[in-house]
Design a protein that fits this description.
With 349 residues, the protein is α/β, with parallel strands linked by helices. Helices cover 25% and strands 27% of the residues.
């Protein structure tokens, strides 16, 4: 027995998102069914509708918040009515060392993505949160902290986790100087988290219009990366750089701002890295990457967000505005994350 789900899907690579219905499998014993209230729009959605997409029709969306409407027979973590959040992963092997350690995004057999991935038990491709419901293994549904705006929590499940995880991994905190490159969907949360962790935070931006915004978000200082003198003055300064820019860009000038032994962690997923190796050799600097954390780091991030009252700065749109939102996101025209109010669809029908 299956359930007919209303959703919004891309039917061809690079094409628009349109209304669609599909048959959703039943919940298994460890699954929860979640009625989606809010779903963020991520750059990954743009990439998946574009060059990354594998199977069409494709239902994007991997940062969502909603209510549990059904639990499998063996579920212990959640009850019907619970407000939960779901991120980029809905299942994993659960047995390899990373999974056992709560690092499921590093699963040796590759974690099951929330959408455009093959279901682990052969029930076709996974479908994301641009839909009225999703099904997810109970491990990957997270309780939404009390007192936080559910809509503004949704982007924390991807964007928030993606910046919080490397900040924790590389020890951002008191006595450390952290630079955040790019003040967008990822970068604005990077500044908030780094400041709350106790680091000295410097924002790098190409836009003079974002200087005041970056300071308001919590940066101690802002550097216009288009100013060669200001960039030269940052030499050998940073313990960690969090590079959130999704497009290919010159990274060597940033690499030279790292202190000896420092790390530039790219989380924006550009198509390639434009960096001179010699800039890394001098000072034993490192280039690393990172993505959203597993269940252990995601729970820590949500608890930390609740403690420090951190959520994303969002613009809420309706399902009819998804295509316009995707175009604006591609043009970097959002402060700082779009969130779709999926309930508008149900209330209008």
């Amino acid at each position: 027995m299956t359930t007919t789900i209303s959703a919004y899907a891309a039917f061809e690579r690079g094409g628009p998102v349109r209304p669609w219905t599909y048959e959703q499998r039943d919940a298994r014993e460890h699954d929860v069914r979640v009625e989606v209230a809010y779903c963020g729009i991520c750059h990954t959605d743009l990439h998946s509708i574009g060059p990354w997409g594998r199977s069409f029709p494709l239902v994007p969306g991997h940062e969502l918040v909603g209510r549990v409407t059904e639990t499998g027979s063996a579920v212990t973590a959640h009850r019907v009515g619970d407000l939960v959040a779901v991120g980029p992963v809905v299942d994993s092997c659960g047995q390899c060392p990373p999974c056992v350690a709560g690092q499921e995004t590093m699963c040796f057999t590759v974690a099951t993505a929330t959408y455009d991935a093959e279901d682990r038990q052969g029930d076709g491709p996974t479908r994301g949160g641009f839909a009225e419901q999703v099904i997810v293994h109970e491990r990957f549904a997270y309780r939404v902290p009390d007192g936080l705006d559910p809509a503004a929590v949704a982007p924390l499940l991807c964007a928030g986790s993606t910046v919080f995880t490397p900040l924790r991994h590389w020890g951002a905190g008191p006595g450390k100087t952290v630079g955040v490159i790019g003040i967008g969907g990822l970068g604005h949360l990077g500044v908030k988290f780094a400041r709350a962790l106790g680091a000295h935070v410097v924002a790098f931006t190409t836009s003079a219009a974002k200087v005041e915004d970056a300071l308001a978000l919590g940066a101690h200082d802002v550097v216009l990366s288009s100013d060669p003198e200001r960039m030269a003055a940052q030499a050998n300064r940073f313990d960690l750089l969090l590079d959130t820019v999704p497009a290919v860009h010159p990274m060597t000038p940033y690499m030279l701002t790292l202190a000896p032994g420092g790390t530039l962690c790219s989380v924006g997923l550009p198509a390639s890295f434009d960096v001179a190796p010699f800039a890394m050799v001098v000072g034993r600097r490192s280039l690393a990457t990172g993505g959203a954390g597993g269940t252990a780091e995601t729970r820590e991030m949500l608890d930390f967000s609740a403690e420090h009252r951190i959520t994303a700065d969002i613009e809420i749109i309706g399902p009819d505005d998804i295509n316009a939102g995707l175009k604006r996101l591609e043009a970097n025209d959002v402060k700082y994350r779009f969130v779709i109010d999926m309930a508008r669809t149900r209330s209008e029908h």
